[in-house]
Amino acid sequence: EAGVAQSPRYKIIEKRQSVAFWCNPISGHATLYWYQQILGQGPKLLIQFQNNGVVDDSQLPKDRFSAERLKGVDSTLKIQPAKLEDSAVYLCASSPSSDTPHYGYTFGSGTRLTVV
Amino acid sequence: GQQLNQSPQSMFIQEGEDVSMNCTSSSIFNTWLWYKQDPGEGPVLLIALYKAGELTSNGRLTAQFGITRKDSFLNISASIPSDVGIYFCAGQLRGAQKLVFGQGTRLTINP
After folding, report:
1. Burial class of residue A2, CB neighbours in 10 A (0-12, 13-18, 19+)
2. Minimal Cα–Cα distance from B28 to chain A, Å?
């Protein structure tokens, strides 16, 4: 079974620029999560999708962050404009169901964003 | 929001030693999970705990769901070099779907 695919692996941008990250979850997984992991901290949930609908985006900075999951498969996370404090690893995860998310809750390797 | 306090933040041990780390919260959790993260990778689930007082093992790893539902412990016995990494606890609140993560414990092993 292929894992959660993320791209790019690394991205360096200047502040105020825009950036987008892509995630392809495990085939058949209904639930998709985007987490932000700042250096030295644990992951923090940004947004959760169930199929193509948003379940929880309470911690997503909506003035600059946006995410979509068209057709309930791939997802993109965008930051526009980026700030220095957005430097972090952005992790995508997927699970078969939102009822018991830890079952088969698989993380991708992440995209490391550096804002300079 | 909910926070998990994980300790210690870092550990430096000799190969073969046992390791203990813990996580506490002011909130009651329905599920406790322990993950390991290697450099450049996402977290990988080690152990999941579902009931207060539950003690679960996975090889040399043993974790416990605290009786108050507000804490959890992870022990690693007879550490080996591949145990190096960052260990995270995570909790799931009753009725919620997202996971709340601790700050992590960085484990370094001297051969």
Report:
1. exposed
2. 17
Per the CB < 8 A criterion, the answer to whether B5 and B11 are in contact is no
- Residue B91 contacts A where some CB pair is shorter than 8 Å: no
Cβ pair A101:B101 closer than 8 A: no
Separation between Cα atoms, residue A50 and residue A32, nearest integer Å: 7
Using the Cβ of A39 and the Cβ atoms of chain B, whether some distance falls under 8 Å is answered with: no
A43/B43 Cβ within 8 A: yes
- Interval A10-36: pLDDT, tens: 999 999 999 999 999 999 898 999 999
pLDDT mean over B81-105:
89
* Nearest CA among A96, A66, A87 for reference residue A4: A96
- Report helix, strand or coil for A8: coil
Taking CB atoms and an 8 Å limit, are A102 and B1 in contact across chains?
no
Q: Which of A81, A93, A102, A88 is nearest to A36 (CA)?
A: A88
As given in the structure block, the two tokens for residue A66 are 């946006």
The length of chain A is 116
